[in-house]
Amino acid sequence: AKPQKTRRLCGFCKEYVDHDFRNCPERRASACSEEDDGSI
């Protein structure tokens, strides 16, 4: 196990965070159920 989390550049936060652009908590909060809900 690695000591620190994988820091990656989040395109939503525009900074290196411990989450990914696709897994951004802020993006999920402001996302209008694009991929989370398969009703397309």
Structural class: alpha+beta
Distance between the termini: 39 Å
**Average pLDDT for all residues:** 79
Query: Which word captures the global form?
Result: elongated
Number of strands: 2
What pattern of helices and strands is seen along the backbone?
EEH
| Major β-sheet profile | 2 strands, antiparallel
Helix content: 10-25%
Number of domains: 1
User: Which strands sit side by side, in order, in the main sheet?
Assistant: 1-2
Radius of gyration: 12 Å
Residue stretches low in confidence (pLDDT < 50, at least 5 long) are none
Description:
By secondary structure, the chain is α+β, with helices and mostly antiparallel strands. It has one domain. 15% of the residues lie in helices and 15% in strands. Strands 1-2 form a two-stranded antiparallel ribbon. A hairpin with a 4-residue loop joins strand 1 and strand 2. The mean pLDDT is 79. This is Zinc knuckle CX2CX3GHX4C domain-containing protein.
Question: Layout of helices and strands, plus pairs?
Answer:
Elements: E1 8-10, E2 15-17, H1 25-30
Index terms:
single chain, two-stranded antiparallel sheet, alpha+beta, 15% helix, Zinc knuckle CX2CX3GHX4C domain-containing protein, 2 strands, 40 residues, elongated
Summary?
By secondary structure, the protein is of the alpha+beta class. It has one helix and two strands; from the N terminus they run ββα. The longest helix has 6 residues.
